[in-house]
Amino acid sequence: MQTEVFSEFPLLSTANPQTLEWLLNVAIEHEYPVGRAVLMEDAWGNAVYFMVSGWVKVRRTCGDDAVTLAILGRGDFFGEMAILDESPRSTDVIALSSVKLLSISRERFIQILFKDPQLHHRMLQLMVRRLRQINQRLQIRSSPPAVKLAHTLVSLGESYGHESGKGKEIFNIPFKDLADVTEIGVEETTKIMEKLHQKGWITIDNANNIIYIINFKQLMNLAGKV
């Protein structure tokens, strides 16, 4: 594996070449099939994980119920909170698709944070960005369901979307998970997605598990992000 693989990760965009080479030497590759638990709640944090390909959901279990809190795709990372505060993980991470990951042990990741101030600073920036995204979700909590769902789709498109001839591609996320993240009902999610399809703003390719966001600008307008 070449160090170029790390160019996909915003967290590592400012890291120096020596840091990237060192990370490559200590990283461990993992592959998980659809539905497999990548991390389990209450397990002690011993590594940080980088998404090479695929999609996962971050969920919290409440008794027999499980609620999806976030969807993560290629280029993102997770597991950093548990290694920084040395506590058990507070959420599960489940593969929504086939997933390839790189993991770096807690000891080695913290060691490199001290060696590379740019990486340390970049990590703080991205953690602050996640807090801002949570604040945005709180601000639109009382908005109509269609606005909230549009906000979710736009955020996924901006973070992980891939441009294609048919529009911006994202994974065909199960409606239950979309509903959880958006904090609306599954029936509402189904109706809104059908309406967006009828308007020609999105197309769902069930055979290939892809949602094509065709009219991204209109979706942004609906989400109030322009």
From TrEMBL:
InterPro entries documented for this protein: cNMP-bd_dom, cNMP-bd_dom_sf, Env_Response_Regulators, HTH_CRP, RmlC-like_jellyroll, WH-like_DNA-bd_sf, WH_DNA-bd_sf
Keyword DNA-binding among record annotations: yes
Transmembrane region(s): none
Cellular component GO terms, alphabetical: cytosol
Annotated SUPFAM superfamilies: cAMP-binding domain-like, Winged helix' DNA-binding domain
Keyword line: DNA-binding, Transcription, Transcription regulation
GO molecular function: DNA binding; DNA-binding transcription factor activity
PROSITE patterns reported in the protein's UniProt record: CNMP_BINDING_3 (PS50042)
Pfam families given in the database record: cNMP_binding, HTH_Crp_2
Domain Cyclic nucleotide-binding: 11-130
SMART domains named in the record: cNMP (SM00100)
Protein name: Crp/Fnr family transcriptional regulator
The organism of origin for this protein: Amazonocrinis nigriterrae CENA67
